[in-house]
Amino acid sequence: MKSPLYMSPSIYETMIKLRHGNERMKIIAKFLNGKKVIELGCATGYNSEYLDCDYRGFDMNKGFVAYGKDKGRNVTLGNVFDVPLSHYDAILIVDVLHHVKDHKGLLRKALATGKAVVVCEPFDRDFNNRAIEWLFDKINKWIDSDGINPPVDWYKKKKLTALFRSFGNCELYEIGEDVIAYYKYKNKKK
């Protein structure tokens, strides 16, 4: 069942603003401004409002994409696994991994391009109380039920940072309950 968060693009954007403010996008913008950027799983393309770049976003939520287009954002309906990435300087993935069962495959695809990759992902809180953690997990799965992808477990902070490091050298930043991983552009040898 789709949560109310994913039924209305305006509710979604309001909740994102309330939860995150603009702090994480200030950090992300430092890596992407002036570049040609593709965002995978862009929702409404809201993140483009914080970036000074040539932006294009892809998402599978028809209502979110239509809303983004109505706002004048460069967003397209599409599956993140089917989008060609070679025409971009940088790849942005925000709040997507916990929606995608093959999130490691998505990271591998993005990093295989040799382009700059910025990933921002929330982590699961550690309450040190199994009952509270169980309840919080159930609430998260309901809130994050997008109606398109099956629910996937969130990572604890330690495992999320280990996941990011397992894909290679990256800069890590913690903002609230999110970790941002920045993988610098690598010139691929021919």
**Which CATH-level-2 architecture?**
3-Layer(aba) Sandwich
Return the average pLDDT rounded to an integer.
88
Question: How many structural domains are formed by the residues?
Answer: 1
Low-confidence stretches: none
Tell me the β content.
15-25%
Taking the alpha carbons of the first and last residues, their distance comes to: 47 Å
Tell me the CATH superfamily: Vaccinia Virus protein VP39
Radius of gyration: 16 Å
Query: How many strands in all?
Result: 7
What's the CATH class, please? Alpha Beta
Overall helicity:
25-40%
**CATH-defined topology:** Rossmann fold
Question: What would your notes on this structure say?
Answer:
Helix content is 34%, strand content 19%. It is α/β, with parallel strands linked by helices and 190 residues long. It has one domain: Vaccinia Virus protein VP39 (Rossmann fold, 3-Layer(aba) Sandwich), CATH 3.40.50.150. A seven-stranded mixed beta sheet has the order 3-2-1-4-5-7-6, sandwiched between helices. 33% of the residues are buried. The mean pLDDT is 88.
